[in-house]
Each structure stands twice: as structure tokens, then as C-alpha cells.
Amino acid sequence: MKKRLLIATGGGDCPGLNAVIRAIVKRAYQEQNWEVLGSIDAFNGLLSDPIRVVDLNLETVAGIHVKGGTIIGTTNKGGPFSWPVQQADGSWTTKDRSQEMLQTLKELKISAVVNIGGDGSQRISQRLYEMGCPIIGVPKTIDNDLSETDFTFGFQTAVDAATDAVDKLVSTAASHHRLLILEVMGRYAGWIALHAAIAGGAEVCLIPEIPYDIHKVKEAIDRRLASGKKFANLVIAEGAKPKDGEMTYVESETPGAMKIKLGGAAFKLSRELKEVGVEMEIRETILGHLQRGGRPNAFDRVLATSMGVKAFDMVLNQEWGHMVSYRHPNMVSVPIKNAVRKYNLIDVDSDLVRTARGVGISLGD
Ligand code: F6P
């Protein structure tokens, strides 16, 4: 009888997910005794009644490496440890259904699970591993905030989208003599913002790792105007916050969903700049999910494919509780618990930050 591998993609989608799925299936089919299933919408497919799993074979994964999204769906709601349940009074609570899910895996005769996801998904992987689940993690996120890997796939494609936006905003800012603010994703990390600001040549870049002083931001804009340029471009990470201030977010009401939804940093900054006397016309652009959707670039296709092949090799080696990691130029295996211990944030003393300062980008400090 063939051995069965189950793949799940969890959390926000990310360019490159399909390339990982395809690589795992292609590599698995090189062995004669493996078949692959996909759980629809992360592990929620296993927790649904009836369960929602699909066969993944050479036919179903043909050509999908160039496509955005994930062919097996994803979600950042629910999951084995926080399944939403409505109570008699209409209010919602969450329930731990992990034992039930492990039982379903047994009934489906799954001998290995590959969970492709960011820090939330890998925390789930770690907990399942501690309960005896034979699980391997693959790091995914446009935010690049997972530790123990040089890069996560999807990040470079997101940076391309953000850089393209900066390029476009520079030309319209110049034509209209405006200050244009671009808000990009990244959660608590400023990787996308800082890369796009350097690549696109913004004047100011505000990241969560360096809380900004609004007066310093104004000074940078004043210097720009004094130099004779009549426009400026500013990139702000959604998680950026003023000194002594808070990040801009809303608390989600959705049961079993992530509690905090970041967003609105650009509008807040715009208000603050007007309050301290910036007189230029200011406009805001929120790039949003354009950073997440669409085709992965070539770098992310190669990274995602390499991670998929490595994940299956780790399955063969039974490296349960480990995550694929990119340590240039190699793919290595690291304990999942190390990867989720802390976020991978920008080191404020790193060469990346020095590079930004070196070309005159103000970081608002
Ligand atoms: O983690 C990826 C990410 O795109 C973050 O950059 C962003 O804060 C969040 O997901 C948005 O999630 P949602 O699509 O649920 O709004």
C-alpha cells in the first residue's frame, strides 16, 4: 500500500505556494510508493463535515508554479486549536479540536504532513508535533518575518509590487508637486517597506523597528524642498508607529480569526504631518493585497520549488518537527520551535539600514 502525505497551506496567501505544492508532488512521485493529498483551506478541510481533501497528482499540479494563490485554498480563521463555535446565547467562542484532527489523519492513513505557512501556521505545526504528529514546516510569508531562514518565499514578489508602486508614485508626485505616502504590508516588520524605499528611491521610510519622530519626518521633507525638489515620496510600513505612540489597527470581531488587523498608518501619518505644519498637498496610497496576489517572480519560484523538494526529502528522513530553511545557497532543516520563538525583524544596526541612511533616506529618527 502507498504511503500518504498531506499538504496544507495556512494563513494569508502568498506568491509561490503553488510552486511548493507542485515541487512536493513532483518529488514524491519520483518515489514509487507515495501519494499526496491536500487539505482544503488549511487544516479546516480536515475539520469539516464531510472532510474536504483532494488528491494532488502530476496532472493536478501541472503548470501551477506560475500561478498566484494556492490551489488548495487557505485561511487565517479557525484551525485545530481555535475552531469557532457559536454558543446558545449567540456569542462565539473557540474550541480545541486537535485530538479529533489527529484521529482523522490516522483514519486517512496519513504518514506525513507538510504545513506551508507563516508564524501562526508554524506555531500550529509545533503544537501538533508535540502531540505526536509527523509534521514538517515550510516557511511562507510576504512579510519575511519568520526567524531561522534568510528569506521566505513570496517576499521578493511583494517587494517587486511595492517597488513598482513607488516608481509609479514618483512620476505622479513629480508632475503634481505632491507628497505621496505609500503604505505597504509587513505586519510588525519593515522588510517590504525598506526594500521598496531603497529600490524605488523614496525620501522617507518609516518602519516598525524604528518608531518615528514626526518632527524629524517634517525636517526631512523641508530639506527635500529646500534642495529645490518640489515633490517627495514616503513609504510607511503598516506596522510603523510614532515614538510614544501605537501602531494603527482594528480589532477583529471574527471568531477564531487573528485579533489584530493592521492598516491606516498612512492616513494617520498624513494627519500628523499636517498638524506639524507640512503645507504640501499630501495623498495616500494603500497597496494592500496587490502585494500578495498574482504570479510569483522568478526568485520566489526557484525558492519555493527548492523548499518543496527539501520538504519531501525531510519527510523521507523523518525530520518531524523541523522546518525547511534557506541559508544561502543551501536548503537546511531547523527545529520549528526555533523559527517561531521570535519574529525576524530588521536589525537597526544592519547594512540594510546603513544602506538606506547612506543614500539619504530618512527613517524618521
Ligand atoms: O502576513 C501577511 C499579511 O499580508 C500581512 O502583511 C498583513 O498585515 C496581513 O497578512 C493581512 O491579512 P488579511 O489578508 O487577513 O487582511
Structure description:
With 365 residues, the protein is α/β, with parallel strands linked by helices. It folds into 2 domains: 3-153 and 294-328, Rossmann fold (3-Layer(aba) Sandwich); 157-291 and 347-358, 3-Layer(aba) Sandwich (Rossmann fold), CATH 3.40.50. Helix content is 35%, strand content 21%. The protein contains 11 helices and 15 strands. The protein has helices spanning 17-30, 44-47, 98-107, 119-130, 155-176, 191-200, 214-226, 265-275, 298-316, 336-339, 351-358, and strands spanning 3-9, 34-39, 53-56, 83-86, 92-95, 110-117, 135-139, 179-184, 204-206, 232-237, 249-251, 260-262, 282-286, 322-327, 330-335. The strands form 4 sheets. It has a 7-stranded mixed beta sheet with strand order 3-2-1-6-7-14-15, with helices on both faces. A 4-stranded parallel beta sheet has the order 9-10-8-13, sandwiched between helices. A two-stranded antiparallel ribbon has the order 4-5. Strand 6, helix 4 and strand 7 (135-139) form a beta-alpha-beta unit. Helix 1 packs across helix 9 and helix 5 packs across helix 6 (191-200). It is elongated, with a radius of gyration of 22 Å. It starts with a strand and ends in a 7-residue tail after the last helix. 6-O-phosphono-beta-D-fructofuranose binds next to strand 12. Residues 12, 76, 118, 141-143, 185-187, 238, 261-262, 292 line the site of 6-O-phosphono-beta-D-fructofuranose (F6P).
List keywords for this structure.
7-stranded mixed beta sheet; 15 strands; alpha/beta; Rossmann fold; 365 residues; binds 6-O-phosphono-beta-D-fructofuranose; 21% strand; 2 domains
